[in-house]
Design goal:
There is one protein chain. This protein is α/β, with parallel strands linked by helices and 193 residues long. The chain is 35% helix and 23% strand. The protein has one domain: Rossmann fold (3-Layer(aba) Sandwich).
Length: 193
């Protein structure tokens, strides 16, 4: 685990692939007085990711890395993380699986938010699965990253009741709202331990 010492904020990178709504909530959280993190870098594998706009509005460095050649991409990534002295990584809708090399280097220092109540519904299409199986609850989970997809130790979870009238769209929105609240709380918990 990352130790928080004195007033030192933890240099953090957030990895995104899409809209960046969780990135935005993490940036807002990082500006609060009691936040343990300082977001120094936004990484994306997608140069069209809408979330990259937050780099400009919040004056945070961004870098788009093409993952077509995974080895080259990961060398660039590790160099950049080292150069920026990144000590903690938040995955926020990052649609690439990190290699064992990166996971090992940042062991216990990479967290992810997942739109289901893990260990249920690892991977993609979590809301469709919950609706198809007539689940009473869905939700979201913040967990540590390991080399097995969506299998790391759970930090925090939040249940969301599925109503009869819920569609894929309404359930997605409900869970996303909870993700925005849960992720900052989970990060606070990581650094209190």
């Amino acid at each position: 685990m990352v130790q928080l010492t004195g007033n030192n904020l933890i240099s953090t990178a957030v990895f995104i692939s899409g809209r960046g709504t969780n990135l935005k909530s993490l940036i807002k959280f990082s500006k609060k007085k009691n936040s343990p993190i300082n977001i120094k870098l936004i990484i994306s594998n997608n140069n069209k990711a809408k979330g990259l706009k937050y780099s400009k509005s919040y004056k945070i460095q961004k870098k788009v890395i093409d993952f077509k050649n995974k080895n080259i991409a990961e060398k660039k990534l590790l160099n950049l993380l080292s150069k920026k002295k990144i000590r903690f990584i938040c995955l926020a809708g990052f649609m690439k699986i990190l290699s064992k090399k990166i996971i090992k280097k940042f062991s216990g220092k990479i967290v992810n938010i997942h739109p289901s109540l893990l260990p249920k519904y690892k991977g993609l299409n979590t809301h469709q699965k919950a609706l198809k199986n007539n689940d009473k609850y869905s939700g979201c989970t913040v967990h540590y990253i390991t080399d097995k997809v969506d299998s790391g130790k759970i930090i925090l979870q939040k249940k969301v009741k599925i109503k009869r009238k819920d569609s894929l769209n309404t359930l997605t929105k409900k869970v996303l709202l909870e993700e925005h609240k849960l992720y900052p709380r989970a990060i606070s918990k990581v650094f209190k331990n």
